């Protein structure tokens, strides 16, 4: 693939016409057309503006991908969305339990490529979302832009994230096994303290079961992770109202080897 084809691909993903791209760059649409069909390449002075317009980097336009920092960064380099773009079913439960008749402030912890955060923003929530992986955040921003909605995406580590103000809903899916067991209680105390009265925490965590063999290791090797004990998440919310406490065992084919996972799923409400 050459630079012109990469420009054309990114332009189409973002739903831009050649005309609109040309206007934004102060060139003719024939110039854009010539780049895309390989007749010419863009002037060097236009490379940064093109990369900015297409929400990518000059490196990526030339097909250069520096060595990724983490396995998630590597997974998220691909054009397609590693986790898909369909929201987690818990997002529909948020819609049912807190229909967006007022502006609820939502935090998505470990948002990956943003499918859940963008879904909630499209439905009228005011969403902030963070992840460790910059490549995931870049795709999440593109997804939000594609749907003409806004999410405040930022890079942070759940281990030392300091919330500011009060959230109405805190959501996290498939992430909290990256919190070492001894760090869980203080992190959850902080999140609970920064939740408004009647706010919801909507979360799932991987749990270990003696009768389920460990999954073939599909986790990024460089990331410390440890599954939760069954019920451990629910115990952290003994002082809130538990609307949903469910344990689910489900089959998985990741890595090409059939195996099973177990998850605890929780919706809890902070009472006065
Ligand atoms: C299994 S993916 C889930 C992504 C997303 N929640 C979803 O369901 O599509 C786990 C995510 O957690 C992120 N992550 C891992 N450790 C983290 C940490 N310490 N702080 C923030 N995010 C982290 C990874 O980068 C990855 O995007």
Feature tags:
272 residues, alpha/beta, 434 Repressor (Amino-terminal Domain), Rossmann fold, 2 domains, 7-stranded mixed beta sheet, 7 strands, 21% strand, binds S-adenosylmethionine
Itemize the secondary structure elements and their pairings.
Elements: H1 3-13, H2 18-25, H3 29-36, H4 47-53, H5 58-61, H6 71-75, H7 89-97, E1 105-109, H8 115-122, E2 126-131, H9 134-146, E3 151-155, E4 167-173, H10 181-193, E5 195-206, H11 232-235, E6 241-252, E7 259-269
Parallel strand pairs: 1-2, 1-4, 2-3, 4-5
Antiparallel strand pairs: 5-7, 6-7
Bound molecules: S-adenosylmethionine.
Residues 72, 83, 88, 110-112, 115, 131-133, 136, 157-159, 173-175, 178, 223 line the site of S-adenosylmethionine.
**Might you state the CATH topology name of the largest domain?**
Rossmann fold
Average pLDDT for all residues:
93
Q: Give the structural class.
A: alpha/beta
CATH-defined superfamily of the largest domain: Vaccinia Virus protein VP39
**How many DSSP helices?**
11
Distinct ligand kinds: S-adenosylmethionine
Do you know the CATH architecture of the largest domain? 3-Layer(aba) Sandwich
Number of DSSP-assigned strands: 7
Structural Rg:
21 Å
What is the first-to-last residue Cα distance?
59 Å
Describe the structure.
- The chain has a seven-stranded mixed β-sheet with strand order 3-2-1-4-5-7-6.
- The chain has helices at residues 3-13, 18-25, 29-36, 47-53, 58-61, 71-75, 89-97, 115-122, 134-146, 181-193, 232-235, and strands at residues 105-109, 126-131, 151-155, 167-173, 195-206, 241-252, 259-269.
- β6 and β7 form a beta hairpin.
- The protein has two domains: 3-66, lambda repressor-like DNA-binding domains (434 Repressor (Amino-terminal Domain), Orthogonal Bundle); 89-269, Vaccinia Virus protein VP39 (Rossmann fold), CATH 3.40.50.
- It is α/β, with parallel strands linked by helices and 272 residues long.
- The structure holds S-adenosylmethionine.
- S-adenosylmethionine binds next to loops.
């Amino acid at each position: 693939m050459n630079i012109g084809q990469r420009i054309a691909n990114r332009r189409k993903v973002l739903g831009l016409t050649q005309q609109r791209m040309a206007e934004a760059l102060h060139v003719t649409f024939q110039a854009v057309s010539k780049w895309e069909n390989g007749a010419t390449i863009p002037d060097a002075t236009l490379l940064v503006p093109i990369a900015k317009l297409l929400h990518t980097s000059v490196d990526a336009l030339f097909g250069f991908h520096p060595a990724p920092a983490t396995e998630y960064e590597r997974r998220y380099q691909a054009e397609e969305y590693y986790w898909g773009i369909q929201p987690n079913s818990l997002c529909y439960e948020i819609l049912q339990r807190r229909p967006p008749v007022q502006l609820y402030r939502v935090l998505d912890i470990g948002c990956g490529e943003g499918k859940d955060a963008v879904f909630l923003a499209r439905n009228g929530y005011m969403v902030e979302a963070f992840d460790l992986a910059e490549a995931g955040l870049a795709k999440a921003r593109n997804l939000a832009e594609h749907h003409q909605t806004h999410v405040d995406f930022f890079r942070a580590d759940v281990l030392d994230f300091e919330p500011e103000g009060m959230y109405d809903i805190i959501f996290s899916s498939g992430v909290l096994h990256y919190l070492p067991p001894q760090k869980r209680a203080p992190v959850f105390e902080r999140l609970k303290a920064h939740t408004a009265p009647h706010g919801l925490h909507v979360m799932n965590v991987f749990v270990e079961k003696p009768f389920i063999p460990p999954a073939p290791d599909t986790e990024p090797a460089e990331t410390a992770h440890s599954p939760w004990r069954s019920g451990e998440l629910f115990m952290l919310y003994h002082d809130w109202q538990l609307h949903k406490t469910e344990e689910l065992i489900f089959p998985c084919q990741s890595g090409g080897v059939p195996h099973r996972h177990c998850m605890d799923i929780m919706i809890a409400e902070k009472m006065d």
